[in-house]
Amino acid sequence: MQSLATECLAVCVRVIDIAIAVDIAKKICDHISVHSDKNKPSGMSSALRLIVSRIAAKPDSGASLGQLAIPIAGTLKDSSALTSDVVVDIFTALVDVLEHAGAQIANDAEALDKVQSLLLAYIGNSNTAISRRAVTVLGIFVVSVPGEQSQKALDVIFQRYTDAASKSDRCTMLRVIVTIARQKPELIRGRVSHIIDSELETVNEADSDLRVASLLAFKTFVASASDLVKPRLGDIYEAGAKATQFDPDYNYDDEDGDLGEDDEMDTGSEDGLDDEFDDDIYEDNEDVSWDIRLSGVKLLSAIAESELATPEMVVQDIGGLLIKRFKEHEDVVRAEILFTYAKLFGMLAQKLVISKEEPSDMDVDNGIYEMVKQQIPLAVSLLLSSIKAHPKHTETRQLAFVVLARFVPLSIAAVDGILNEILPFVISTLETSDNAGTSQAATTGIVKANIRIDALDFLLEYAKHAELTAEADDFLFAVTDKLTNVTSSNLVMVQASVYSVSRAIIKLLRSAAKDSEKRIERYLVWLNKITEQAINVADTKENALQVAVYPLIGASLQQFGDLLSDAVVDEALKCLIKWNQGVERVHASMDALLHAITKITHLPEKCVVENASLIMRQASEKLQSTNAKTQQSALALIASLSKYNTTAIDDLGPSTVARIVDIIGATPESPPLMALRAFSGMCTHVTIDTIVKSSKQLLDSLSLATVYDKLSATAMNELYETVGRLFPDIVESWEAALVGKWVKDYVQFSSLRASRAATETTQVQNPINRLPVLAKGIIALRSGYCEQSGGSLSDKLVSNVQGKAPKSPEEMASVCLDLRSLGYLAVTGNSLKESESLYDMICTYLQSSNSDVRGEAAFALGNYVGAFPGNFAKLFKSAMASVAEEAAVVAALEAAAVEGPGASTIGVGSVESLQAVKTAIEYTLRDKTSAAAATAAVIDEGMVKYMWQLISESAQTSKSPMPDILAQCLAIVAARLPQTFIPQLASCMEESRTIHAKAFFITVFRTLLADKSIEGQCDKMIKEVLPVVMSNISNDDVGIRKLSLLALCMVIQNKSKLFDELARTIQPALFAQTVVDESLVRTIIMGPFKKHVDDGLETRKCAYQCVYMLVRNMPHMADAEAVVDCVVRGMADEQEVRVVVQQIMNESVGSFPTAYKARLDDLVDTISAAQGKKQGKNAVKQEIDRHNEMLRLAVAIVHTLEQFFPKQASDETTKLGELVRRLDNMPDSMPNASELAAFYREIKAPIRASAAGSARGQSAARMHPNKEAFIEGVDHVLAKWTALELAVQNGWGGRRSREKRDTMVDEIVEYFDQQVRKKTAAAAVAVEPTDVEELLLQVMDEDFSVMLEDQSEKEVARLLCTIFAECRAGNFETVDRMADEREAKGAADSAASRSQAAQGTAAAAEGQDGSSGSESDDGSDDSPMEE
């Protein structure tokens, strides 16, 4: 009766007012205090526990629960009168109060005193159970209640731990300390080292409970205090390894080896799996050692996931040990071992870029890859033994499939070796029921909710990577027999997985069909059946099933349309051509049809031709769609269909071409790739009248095109070539229209430039940027014409440039076009012949007064010499004439043997001639992608050595700075011949006789580092040069110091592994450069005004940027105290430095909290001084903005300190607390009061960051951390989206393109917010990618006029949905990884930008001339924006 009354009361509390519930709880407390009787059980304590729990479940219950602290504490004043059960009930209620009302208790002195006194008294209770419970509650008190009393309670806990008389007491205290460390690691950080040392002394001899507690403590400290763990990492690893192998009561000898051939092997029936799912997981109830082994595995997992473990340690030590424990007999431990191994292998797989053809192409050392490959065979063998030994344990089998799936890309051979043995388990798994899964699946995220999905994932990976050997053939054939049965599953994901696996098998079968048609024949029944099943479910409304079904149908037609039955082919085509469904299904069916009909396909041509008219009609109609994805798919279908020899689509040709031209005209600067291809294809199905009719509109659009990606450039050239070949009669008019439009624009721009109309020229793009596209187009147009009618394009161009002396802008434009075209002809080897007169003629254009002509001449000459390298010597001699100052160098030049036709020289050296030298070097030493370049002669190695020697000597003797373009030349040579020239580069730096020479050779080194095409190839040689470069950080010249620091920054961000050995020794010199050098500060007097100029500011800023990269990429190597010193010092520096200082602090405060805490007051002093700086009375707008930015930054730093040091921030007796209080209540008398108050409110308010690029710890927004992470993730995803970045960089959205991109972040976040509001919490997690695709397509179309053709919106949408689901669950792993990748890329780009900016007049002229080599030598664009 008492229990029923208690339950009724608890139910009532759910619906009554919270104040009434609190009064009831108080009355129960009074009753317990007055009527407690140890010999008379009471249900009142149970009622109290339940009621407090119900109150705690109500929102905003903290204040109400705080009122119960004193009454609940009062019930425990007489422990002798209470039973253990009653005390436990009351403690449970007290825990709810502490967790939900800790802040209120901290502000109530009486409650604080009573609760703490009570808990301290109870930890000495003679009843062990009560004492342990009191200690646990005391730990919760420490975590939940801020203030000094909590610290006192922690001191008591730690003292009890240190003085524990029994192992049991020590174990209890240690577990409480671990609980505190998990929630507030900063509270016990100062005691971690002591605890580690103490536990390591006894961990291996301790009894079960204490040993488990010790291992748990190590695991917690590895995650929360890795820097303190590092000195004892080896010992901690040994403790975990020994614990993992601790199994004194079990003999594994009987389990060694595989089952014999005649042994009966139970693969587990469906019923067996289901029964095992509910069985007790522990096989030996008397054995308690399993808990130790389980804790050991979890410790090893924590070490592997931490920054402490090297890849070698993860693979060899931890991975090797876990493999040996696959034979574990306890199910729960074995599952944890397999789970951990799968997780670690997943971590390694993300770092390894695996290629079956080129396994050495990896992001990490080849040694790690080889270690993994060597380990896999043993792992596979032991994994198979584990499955055999425990055939009915679902989780073992599930995790085995997960591990095998991750093995496949690395070592398919190891998996091939067990196919026959693993097959029975795969078959029995596929035959299980829909509810066969693992209890752990819901929480781990590694295994799926249904075991069949994990088996199918393994099959999918295998089919993707396998070769159809006899063994693989038998294995897959047996599997396919079961796949058609699994499609009857009620689980959508199981069905979808079946179709995905089937599609992969179909592709594998087709690749094998070339070798053996007989091998394929036995699959035909299955192929027809699985395709029929896919057709039957194609009308499903399940998106997950749609994305698997339609690709399968398309793949079946594409790969085996010639072998499928006529009925199946007919039904499949009908299914794919039916486009009257929803948008998502239309897209899926159009994409599948595109794959089916795109050549090369095995779908019989007659099947396509029979349906061509219907497909074309529907595709033409879809061109009218406002949906960009629909329009893109329609264009792709038209482009593919036009390749078929059929007249069925001719009738629709004119209208289709007209619509395609309209689409191209919608984005003329960047015409859609598929639209260009569709137009080219339709040319074979229309008459010349149709082309002529659309020519003006089309040419007006194409003349504005500025194409950067290779695919679009190729498609545009194909269009021109097709028109030239099919319609030679209109070639002249097309060429005249294209050239005329460009010349007109160039003349207009030249006029503006000549008149120095700066405001106008900044708004008009220089037409020279469109010249590469135009020149390639004209060449393609003429090539098609010449192919049809004969003639030589090169002869025409050569005759155009010879004998001209351009004077007018029109003539200049014409020559620019001809020179650019000649350069491309040289690259492609398109019938251009070596000619002394042509060489001389191009050289004369290098003397032009027009910079554009000079730039195009440099491009043409460089490529010409690259094609005919016998001319390199005389080109180099002439180019060096302008930089050779000393007599010895001049004499060397005059004595140089000049080979090749003629002996003429350029006459006067110029920047453009040096650019020609660089282009020629790039052609012969770097680019071997084109057929012409691959077969071309190369510059003689002796000439290369001579060039290096001459440039080096010129640098050593030059009295002025050398052109940076020569540094680029040497960097190219060093990159391609590292063994010879990188050591010489080091020698040149050491032997430099002048500042100019040293600066030049450091620039060569920096340029070498920036060359991403040599990643990994020159690391060994670069590492040897590093000490020489780094020694210049302390050079007497400030310019040399700056260049050396820039080089250091690039090394840390791009090649930090090479810097490990130098990191410790170089830091004193690095941090010394963060100090203001007063000798570089000078005062300029201008009448009554004085201006202070700091010539060392830029160098100092570079030093701070190096520090930032150090704490970002190598925090374990950074000197914590020196970092904090430079942060404190930097806050008193100039604004440029303070910006970097904020980045340093945000990145390092979490890594070095002790060091920051020690200097907290000094840091606050510098912040306060910055906030108190007054602005000049007559400040201009730029000065006002700069001042406000300084104030905003100072406030942001205060906010960061609040987050990491909440105790000091809430204590007004500390300097930080006083500063926070002052910002919260800013007195009007304070300098900058209104600005500081406004900035502080802005940062504290829950704002939505539109460009959430900063890390979560840096963010000023005080919103829910999950949403904050999602906003950041959205920004990272968009930053990786090539199409969007191209749109922003090229201003396709107008002058507000960048702003539109930032607004796009808001729109995406708002969209997901709306989904959350519309749906239930469970459904909101599963936002469909297809819905997001629609949003992305709409924004790209409306804001940037971009119709996507690469289907990149699919990947972007999928990634957005993934991070949304992860962030909602509090998992920020993907967001953090993307942040790391983006920051590394941003730092590299920033360094590259600084390098380019430092190149001076030569680089400026090079950039103006548009001849910096943005086009590769094979004639295709080679822009860094290319995906």
Describe the protein:
The protein has a two-stranded antiparallel sheet. It is built from 73 helices and 2 strands. The radius of gyration is 37 Å and the shape is globular. The C terminus is likely disordered. It is mainly alpha-helical. The longest helix has 25 residues.
Indicate the proportion of strand residues.
under 5%
Sheet with the most strands: spatial strand order: 1-2
Tally the helices: 73
Structural category = mainly alpha
Strand elements, count? 2
Instruction: Let me know the average pLDDT.
Output: 79
Q: Describe the largest sheet.
A: 2 strands, antiparallel
Task: Detail the poorly predicted runs.
Answer: 254-285, 353-365, 438-447, 757-763, 897-909, 927-936, 1246-1262, 1319-1325, 1390-1427
CA radius of gyration is: 37 Å
> How far apart are the termini?
74 Å
Helical proportion? 55-70%
Cα shape: globular
Question: Strands, helices and their partners?
Answer:
Elements (H helix, E strand, L loop, with lengths): L1 H14 L2 H18 L8 H14 L4 H5 L2 H7 L8 H23 L2 H14 L5 H17 L3 H15 L4 H17 L1 H4 L3 H11 L5 H17 L1 H4 L3 H12 L25 H9 L10 H17 L5 H14 L6 H21 L14 H24 L4 H14 L4 H5 L2 H12 L10 H4 L6 H15 L4 H17 L5 H22 L3 H5 L2 H13 L6 H18 L5 H12 L5 H15 L7 H18 L5 H14 L11 H14 L6 H10 L5 H15 L7 H17 L4 H24 L3 H4 L9 H19 L3 H9 L7 H20 L7 H10 L5 H17 L4 H9 L6 H9 L15 H16 L4 H5 L5 H17 L6 H13 L1 H13 L4 H16 L8 H12 L7 H17 L5 H13 L8 E6 L2 E6 L2 H17 L6 H11 L4 H14 L4 H6 L1 H12 L9 H24 L1 H5 L4 H10 L8 H12 L20 H16 L1 H8 L7 H22 L2 H5 L3 H16 L7 H17 L4 H25 L2 H10 L18
